[in-house]
Write a structure and sequence with these properties.
Layout (H helix, E strand, L loop, with lengths): L2 E8 L6 H13 L5 E7 L11 H4 L3 E2 L5 E2 L2 H9 L8 E3 H13 L10 H20 L3 E6 L9 H14 L4 E8 L2 E2 L4 E2 L2 H12 L6 E6 L5 H11 L6 E5 L7 H8 L1 H8 L10 H10 L4 E9 L9 H13 L2 E9 L8 H5 L4 E4 L8 H14 L3 E4 L1 H14 L6 E2 L9 E4 L15 E9 L4 H6 L3 E8 L2 E2 L4 H6 L3 E6 L5 E5 L6 E4 L14 H14 L1
Parallel strand pairs: 1-6, 1-7, 2-5, 2-6, 7-10, 10-11, 12-13, 12-14, 14-15, 15-23, 16-17
Antiparallel strand pairs: 3-4, 8-9, 17-20, 18-19, 18-21, 21-22, 22-23
Helix pairs in contact: 1-3, 1-9, 4-5, 5-6, 12-18, 14-15
Length: 533
């Protein structure tokens, strides 16, 4: 029978529930178990695609084309498995389903209430996603903090699931803050105790307590937590601040977290094979060079808006034994006049995804500077489209060229939404979302980087490059070397004469892993390292 692990949080938000859950997933996978992960978000938005990156961070795109919470990216990177959109559950989705069901008359006039209707829908989605994954163990992170009004329906739902699924089929992990008061020189257990008390008040007794702390927890403090929180002494785990997230699975393995969970689930606890992960951490800790990258984007005020890009750069650094330092530069503040001053000291420039007109000219200035000065540059999604616009403006002498996303009256329009993407009934503009095949030109630099002529990548774009510009650009040294499997859409361009100047309409950052850097990012960092030599 499928086993379920529920991860809740207490005291404060941003404690690292997601990292704890993802680390546990890695430890269980290292023992041979197939793991699936889910995230329950308490906001009323339908999905993160409708949230500003400046408020919620990036939209992570799943293999089946759903915009999901960035925590799903953490999960995928740690457990190295592709998750489906159904793994992202939001209150907005729950309530939308209930309203649609009522409008179809499925409730037959019954009053809709939190219990049982909302909780039943939550349970249904958790169970369905878990069973569809085919995993042995499903790990479900509950967003928010115990005691929050917003998280109450989710906590009630998982309370019910514990009894419905039966003994030995669920494990509850509670992640709570254990602050250290440096003035008093002592650890405080009260916040954790009160957090667990809030959980127990609604009928949830944690099986394992993970204490987030900045210093080591004494055995006496663990004993105190165990006594007052009603858990075995051995089930109180320290999760101390680490210099890198990659160390967290190894630290939790030393604490015995996976063994506690498997014992609760009445499963075998075979030895973990963490050799690959340990070797990766060793490479991260022993760089032989430094690489400084400028990330020029629109949402740099919140670094989480580019979380997967940043992580992919770090992974590429590991592959190249390089310490990668990323500086975030606002495209709103960048111009052709100050580009040399702002960007001249970097070994590489990356132009990530985005949308809308704001900041586009700054990204165009960055693309021009990287192209003309021979600085390695990787352009992704919106960044790739602007890279093409810059080439058309500069190399084809069409200064008014633009994307209709930036200027809807652009003439010529280098980038636009294809007419077949616009719904004739309601005017909606459909996007290409999710994993899709891309055909690369044999002999191109991009194909050489991959070592393949057919690759599978995550997409999330509405706008496309007009293929009328492909031949003129080829004449001036800009080659399109990647196309959709049906041949309809240009996907990748490169400048062969440049040290590294590659743009992709798709998002390679979503498929990068700590122990398996994405080939494009690895090649980009390699080129950046060579540029400084």
């Amino acid at each position: 029978m499928m086993k379920y692990v529920f991860v809740t949080g207490g005291v404060v938000s941003s404690l690292g529930k997601g990292t704890t859950a993802a680390s546990l997933g890695r430890l269980l996978k290292a023992r041979g178990y197939k793991v699936a992960m889910q995230k329950c978000d308490t906001y009323y938005n339908f999905n993160p695609a409708l949230l500003s990156p400046l408020q919620h961070g990036e939209n992570f795109i799943t293999e089946d084309g759903v915009a999901a919470d960035l925590d799903l990216g953490h999960y995928e990177r740690f457990i190295d498995e592709s998750l489906k959109g159904e793994a992202s559950i939001t209150t907005g989705k729950i309530h939308t389903a209930l309203v649609e069901r009522e409008l179809r008359g499925e409730y037959h006039g019954a009053t809709i209430t939190v219990v049982p209707h909302v909780t039943n829908e939550i349970k249904h989605r958790i169970i369905t996603a878990a069973e569809n994954s085919g995993a042995d163990i499903a790990i479900i992170e509950i967003g928010g903090v115990a005691g929050d009004i917003e998280s109450s329906p989710y906590l009630e739902a998982i309370r019910q699931l514990k009894w419905e699924l039966g003994a030995g089929n669920t494990c509850f992990i509670h992640v709570a803050l254990m602050p250290y008061l440096s003035v008093a020189g002592e650890m405080k257990t009260k916040p954790t105790q009160h957090s667990v008390k809030a959980l127990r008040a609604i009928g949830i007794q944690p099986d394992v307590i993970v204490c987030r702390t900045e210093v080591n927890i004494s055995q006496s403090a663990k004993d105190k937590i165990a006594l007052f929180c009603n858990v075995p002494v051995g089930n109180v785990v320290q999760n101390r601040d680490a210099s890198t997230l990659f160390e967290v699975p190894l630290n939790l393995e030393k604490e015995g977290l996976a063994g506690m969970v498997l014992k609760t689930l009445k499963l075998d606890n075979p030895p973990a094979d963490l050799t690959e992960w340990t070797n990766m951490v060793a490479r991260y800790d022993a760089p032989t060079q430094e690489v400084h990258i400028a990330l020029v984007g629109k949402y740099v005020a919140v670094h989480d808006a580019y979380l997967s890009v940043h992580e992919a750069l770090v992974h590429a650094g590991i592959a190249n034994l390089a310490a990668v330092y990323v500086d975030y530069i606002s495209s709103d503040e960048l111009t052709a006049a100050n580009a040399a001053e702002r960007l001249g000291s970097y070994h590489g420039i990356i132009l990530p995804g985005g949308f809308g007109h704001r900041g586009a000219e700054g990204m165009l200035a960055a693309a021009n500077f990287a192209r003309t000065k021979g600085i390695p540059c990787l352009m992704i999604g919106y960044g790739m489209q602007l890279g093409v616009v810059e080439a058309v403006r500069s190399l084809l002498s069409l200064p008014d060229a633009n994307s209709t996303e930036v200027n809807r009256l652009a003439n010529p329009a280098v980038v636009a939404i294809p007419r077949d993407r616009v719904d004739e009934n309601d005017g909606r503009q459909n996007a290409r979302m999710g994993g899709m095949d891309v055909v690369l030109t044999e002999g191109s630099r991009t194909a050489a980087i991959y070592g393949l002529t057919m690759v599978h990548e995550r997409h999330g774009n509405r706008y496309e490059v007009d293929d009328v510009f492909l031949a003129p650009l080829h004449e001036v040294g800009v080659d399109f070397v990647g196309f959709s499997a049906d041949g309809n859409y240009p996907e990748v361009f490169e400048i062969p004469a440049h040290p590294f100047y590659i743009g992709t309409i798709y998002h390679p950052e979503f498929l990068s892993r700590p122990n398996k850097a994405h080939p494009l990012f690895a090649a980009f960092i390699g080129a950046a390292a060579a540029h400084q030599a």
